[in-house]
Design brief:
Elements lengths: L11 H19 L11 H9 L3 H6 L46 H12 L10
Helix pairs in contact: 1-2
Length: 127
């Protein structure tokens, strides 16, 4: 069983925190404010930019809303378990139906109300 380390398993909030903290720590190390140990900030910076944490994958952790099984990195290629062809649209991705048109004039509104209130021959009770 192969483990796919490219699955996106970092949620948006955690991603921004990793990028910010890792970037800051790396810059501070680069300008000499902190020691060389500050370059460890490259790890959270890289995982934040990629949206994937290999340690999370090994632990089975997912802060990306449980979508780590289906989503891969940006291009969605087959290299990380993604499909090379686009998936069929689902109900969640299809456009909703347009609402019914509203009558544009009061006369049209009255005509529609009258038509709805008048029973048809099928609806009239037998005498």
């Amino acid at each position: 069983m192969a483990i796919d380390l490219c699955k996106k398993n970092i949620g948006p909030t955690e991603k921004y925190i990793r990028i910010g903290a890792g970037g800051l720590l790396t810059v501070l190390a680069g300008v000499g404010v902190v020691g060389a140990w500050g370059f460890i900030g490259l790890v959270p910076l890289a995982t934040g930019l990629l949206g994937s944490c290999p340690v999370y994958t090994l632990m089975g952790k997912d802060t990306n809303g449980g979508t780590a099984q289906a989503e891969t990195h940006a291009h969605g290629g087959a290299c990380c378990g993604g499909s090379a062809t686009p998936a069929e649209p689902t109900a969640a991705t299809t456009a909703p139906e347009a609402p019914a048109e509203e009558p544009s004039t009061p006369t049209e509104a009255a005509a529609e109300a009258s038509a709805e209130a008048t029973p048809t021959a099928e609806e009239k009770p037998a005498a």
